[in-house]
Every structure is written in C-alpha cells, then in structure tokens.
Design goal:
The complex is a heterodimer of chains A (112) and B (113). Chain A is an all-beta fold. Chain A has no helices and 11 strands. In chain A, the strands form 2 sheets. In chain A, strands 2, 4, 5, 6, 9, 10 and 11 form a 7-stranded mixed beta sheet that branches. The chains are: A mainly beta (112), B mainly beta (113).
Chain lengths: 112, 113
C-alpha cells in the first residue's frame, strides 16, 4: 500500500519564476492538504482540496493556487516566486470526514 | 482560534534516559483532536498518535506513552529508554471543529549514544 508521494523532491528556482509541485494521496484517501514549513518552524496550512474543489484556505496570498484531479492527486502552484517562498512543502492526505492526515516526504524548494 | 505551544525548543538526552515532550493547546471548541508527529532528518512527518477530546485515557505504545489532561490543556509525550533512532523533531498538532491542523513549533530531540 503506497503512502503519500510527492514530486519533485528538490527544486531550485529564481525569483519571479513559477513552480508546480505534485502530490499523490495514500490509497483510499480523497482529501489532500498542502502545508508550507519554513526552516525551524512548524508546518503552516496552505489549503485543502476535496472533490476537486478548494475547501479551506490558510493565510496565503493568491500567488498560491492548487488543483485536484479526478484521481484525487493534486498540484500546488506558486507564481512570482519570492525568496521567502523557500521552504519544505508538505502534502497530506486523509479519508473522508475528520480522518488523520498522513504526510508525504515533501518537496524542498529553494528560491534564489 | 486554535494554538499549540511546545515550550521546549531543543532537548538532549543520553541513550536509555526517559524524556518527556510538553504540549499545551488552546481552543474554545469542545470537540477537537490532538496529534503527535515525528519528523526525522528526511523531512517526512510520521504520524504517531491521534486522541479526541472525549478520551482522556493515557495511552502506551511500546516505549511511547501519552498523557492527556484537559484540566491543564496538555498532551505530553514520553519516550521511555530513549534510543538514538528517536532523534528527530517532534510536533504536537490540534484540529478543532472542521479546521485544518495547527502545529506547534516543534521540539528537537537529540539522543546521544
């Protein structure tokens, strides 16, 4: 039973560029959440997708957008990258309702 | 609003010592869930335990145990006979109502051989 997978594992971009991160949920899960974890901090909630719609959103600007596909996989897009966007981006999946969130290995983004 | 405080930023212990990681939470909801996750150097958050607000029973799983006390809004985590493999950052998290997870800042545990 595959767990949550994310790609790529590492990414280097320059300011102003755009980036797309991908996530495949754990088998049987239909809800995907994205978190940003800055160095030395706890993860911060970006948004959550369910039934291909954004269900909840944290305090992040519109430069952060996402998508969920019919197979429940998800993408996180960040436009006009800033140096402060450098972080570990974590994807978590859960089953319907208040299921426990299981996390993927993350994508480390470095913005130069 | 929900808040989780992990006052211990870093803890260092010698192998085989017991260690307790503290977690204090704030919420006005009567129904909520508390979690502990482990983050090894690889970065992946590993789920350890979930406890709902109506179940104050302490739980033990091998060398791990959790003490949930609503009276003090605490959900502390104890590792007995620590091992080097326990070295990681540990996060306490809270989900109340239908809100997403709110994490503490984490406690970095170093177990020295």
């Amino acid at each position: 039973d595959a767990g949550v997978t994310q790609s790529p594992t590492h990414l280097i971009k320059t300011r102003g560029q755009q980036v797309t991160l991908r996530c495949s949920p754990k088998s049987g899960h239909d809800t995907v959440s994205w978190y940003q974890q800055a160095l030395g901090q706890g993860p911060q909630f970006i948004f959550q997708y369910y039934e291909e719609e954004e269900r909840q959103r944290g305090n992040f600007p519109d430069r952060f957008s996402g998508h969920q596909f019919p197979n429940y996989s998800s993408e996180l897009n960040v436009n006009a990258l800033l140096l402060g966007d450098s972080a570990l981006y974590l994807c978590a999946s859960s089953s319907p309702g208040l299921g426990t969130q299981y996390f993927g290995p993350g994508t480390r983004l470095l913005v130069l | 609003a929900q808040k989780v405080t992990q006052a211990q930023t870093e803890i260092s212990v010698v192998e085989k010592e017991d260690v307790t990681l503290d977690c204090v939470y704030e919420t006005r909801d009567t129904t909520y869930y508390l979690f502990w996750y482990k983050q090894p150097p690889s970065g992946e958050l590993v789920f350890l335990i979930r406890r709902n607000s109506f179940d104050e029973q302490n739980e033990i799983s091998g060398r791990y145990s959790w003490n949930f006390q609503k009276s003090t809004s605490s959900f502390n985590f104890t590792i007995t006979a620590s091992q080097v493999v326990d070295s990681a950052v540990y996060f306490c998290a809270l989900s109340a109502g239908n809100t997403p997870l709110v994490f503490g800042k984490g406690t970095r545990l170093s177990v020295i051989a």
